[in-house]
Amino acid sequence: MKPSNKFIFLLSFPLSILCPMMASASDDLIMKGNVNADSSKPLNKMVSFADSSDLNKPQLVEQLDQQLLMQSGMDCLVEPHKTSEVASSTSGVVKFINVDRGDTIESGQVLAKLEYEVQQAGVQLANARVKFTAKKLVRMRELFKKKMVPSQELDEAITESDLAIAEHRKEEELLKQRIVKSPLSGVVVERYLSPGEYVENKPILKIAQIDPLNVELIAPVTMLGEFKNDAKVVIYPEGPITGPLEARVTRIDRVVDASSGTFRVRLELPNPDLKISAGVSCRAMLVKSGSE
Description:
By secondary structure, this protein is α+β, with helices and mostly antiparallel strands. The chain has four domains: 1-35; 38-81 and 209-288, Elongation Factor Tu (Ef-tu), domain 3 (Beta Barrel), CATH 2.40.30; 83-114 and 179-206, CATH 2.40.50.100; 117-176, Helix Hairpins. Helices cover 33% and strands 29% of the residues. The strands form two sheets. The chain has a six-stranded antiparallel beta barrel with strand order 2-9-12-11-10-13.
């Protein structure tokens, strides 16, 4: 029986060339999921889990193969924890805006003000009325004690004083409506208006809270039941901060997308220094507990 030409061709190759080629081909097959190094475990499980004991080691980057993760890990997207389009509760002309896109802000910080001179004058007028009615009430009580005025006039003075105080509170609230404050701490994402523009039923700024961040993870249906609340997940985001970063599971979807065979998991990723940008894609590995 004659050996085939292909076999003769392979035999004629030097071993120093042939062996690296075979090793490289084997590695490629494993990277593409065509060869399973352990037949007892599916490949997607192998590349989607990390041992929790590894998180305590500083050499985690070296232990987890970055190339294998990028090819076979789970897709995820880093998103703001909250977003808000900040608007005024009343209409008017923008007097000034204190922030611009990219600025960091704190909860309760004054972001913008509308023209407020009329409302400020209303507060001053109401304040003067409160003082006048208070003095009138004092005189009426003194006269009533001396039985120089009927109780009806004293009641009217009390009512006038109460109405003046209520009017003063109303004017103060109208003035506060001209001041736009931030409902959360975070960053300014977009600025829609400028001083001098008229505001009516439209936002002035868009802001986002990015500490902590949300990570929306897309997992295959084969991993349904693997995720538990507060479980650890290793995140590798794109960009200058590549990870590994530790996030925790906060929400698990109970409905699977039938068309793609996937379900969503929400993670919470701490970002105290605001170094991680929202909107970047990432890859993720679920940390398997050492007891499992």
